[in-house]
Design goal:
Blueprint: H1 2-28, H2 31-38, H3 48-62, H4 72-84
Helix pairs in contact: 3-4
Length: about 90
Amino acid sequence: MRSIHKVLAVAAMAAAFAVPAVQAAEESLDASQFVKMCEADKDGMVSKAEVMKAVEKMFDKADSKKEGRLDRKQVEFFLRELMKGGG
């Protein structure tokens, strides 16, 4: 019975910490900035091809060693650029 209480306590603490993190991530999303960054034809919509081209451009920017792959530090840079919409 004690182990069940421990599991429930750990789950409650994890949930308490997870909710603010999810809310912070949602608040930092800017759809209009993402559309502006990706759309090439300025029609107010984003196609899969436009998104892929923008992501590839950011990947290439993060791939400072030009190896076609990213190490952890480069991935962190890539994700920051992606979240701020920096193409």
